Amino acid sequence: MRSSAGHLLADRDLPILNNWLYISLKRQIFWALSIALLVAPASFAQTTADGGPDPATVRVRLGPLWLSPTVSMPNLGIDTNVFNDPLNVTPKRDFTFDVLPKTDLWLRMGRTWLFGTVGEEIIWYQTYTTERSVNGTYTIGWKAPLNRLVLTTSATQVNTRSRPGFEIDARAHRREPSYAGSVEVRGFAKTFLGVRGSWTRVKFDEDAVFRGSSLEEQLGRTVTTGAITIRHELTPLTSITFSGGRSEQRFKSEPLRNSKSADYSVGLVFDPAALIKGGATVGYTVYKPEAPDLAGYRGTTASASLTYTLLGSTRIAGTITREVEFSYDVNQPYYVLTGGTATIAQQIFGPIDAVVRVGAQRLKYQSRTGAVVAAPDRIDHVRLYGLGFGTHLGRDLRLGLNIDKERRTSVLTEREYKGLRYGLSLTYGI
């Protein structure tokens, strides 16, 4: 049996490959659905303003059922540092590929919408079989925009071995079930008063370990949030929301990590049919750990994901994040993550385009009072630079060649790494 890299697979790899294929067999229903959608004729309808999808993104309409499938292979090539080994260690390189099929769906039910997402991420490494995984994200929800009342509820299940953030380099298996709901009442012609709440459980496998720390003991937790909201529709395609609420983080194995937060924010949301797509939120958070030897955080928070297309040939996308994140290190239990990414895609001529990507993340750690740590209150940085060229083989199909460089710097040499990923990419519907 010959791999895509042109090398023979060893006999010892075959049982692992078979097991990997068996694990992904239970996803074959989704695969069959995605393939069927790729060849089905597209159908569109008028714009909906009652919680339904943007018709421009809907590729298939089967009566009341609307579906928008996408498939991407972001990298078919070489990873020069599979394990994010530090600079004083010879990095391990391997041939790898990722496949990410995803389908968003909406079902019209009277005046309400049932919506959902089925997403998979299949990661394959030729030599380092421990890094192979099949990751899934599944969401189902219901939105009922009634005369003066808007009800929304959703449930999400994440089952993944992807790296949990910029700090932890291990691909540790975890499950994250979450539930959310909101109720809004129209107070004025364009103003809604509401409440919302959510519950999330983060559970790592018992044998998930990183740098000698059990991830379930240090990071296994439940998060409960509640908030009061005021939403005003500035235009038919833009709304602004003011929110004030509280959240609690409870750690079963490490109660000294328990904490509470008060969060106040203002956010803009743009309709998928608007010129600018996405949303942005700026807030102020008061984070209070229950442990007396750990200082809290008072300051700004932010979250944004925006996309803008200029003159039909230049696509600009960006993200911004500033939030409190939990660390695996019990002596430095949290850090403030500040960063963002920017992508510019420019059509050069005909179907040919060029893409430039940059990203920067800043991890500012908070130490416990009196704790012995190698670098008190340290700051790590993660930077990403990427360049790509592609050609559009159809309206929704693109073949590309990408190269991305990532590096983490720290005062702790064992936490530094650099790596390069290069290869082909293939996307449909993105």
What does this 3D model show about the protein?
The strands form 2 sheets. This protein has an 18-stranded antiparallel β-barrel. Strands 9-10 form a two-stranded antiparallel ribbon. With 430 residues, the protein is mostly beta strands. The chain has helices spanning 13-25, 28-39, 215-219; strands at 60-62, 65-79, 94-109, 112-125, 133-145, 149-160, 174-186, 191-204, 209-210, 213-214, 221-235, 238-251, 259-270, 276-289, 297-310, 314-326, 334-349, 352-366, 379-392, 397-409, 417-428. The two termini are 33 Å apart. The chain has 3 helices and 21 strands. 7% of the residues lie in helices and 60% in strands. Mean pLDDT is 88; it is low at 1-10 and 34-48.
Strand content: over 45%
The total count of strands amounts to 21
Termini, distance in Å?
33 Å
Q: Show unreliable segments.
A: 1-10, 34-48
Radius of gyration: 23 Å
Order of helical and strand elements: HHEEEEEEEEEEHEEEEEEEEEEE
Give the count of helical stretches: 3
| Largest β-sheet summary | 18 strands, antiparallel, barrel
Task: Outline the secondary-structure elements.
Layout: H1 13-25, H2 28-39, E1 60-62, E2 65-79, E3 94-109, E4 112-125, E5 133-145, E6 149-160, E7 174-186, E8 191-204, E9 209-210, E10 213-214, H3 215-219, E11 221-235, E12 238-251, E13 259-270, E14 276-289, E15 297-310, E16 314-326, E17 334-349, E18 352-366, E19 379-392, E20 397-409, E21 417-428
Antiparallel strand pairs: 1-2, 2-3, 2-21, 3-4, 4-5, 5-6, 6-7, 7-8, 8-11, 9-10, 11-12, 12-13, 13-14, 14-15, 15-16, 16-17, 17-18, 18-19, 19-20, 20-21
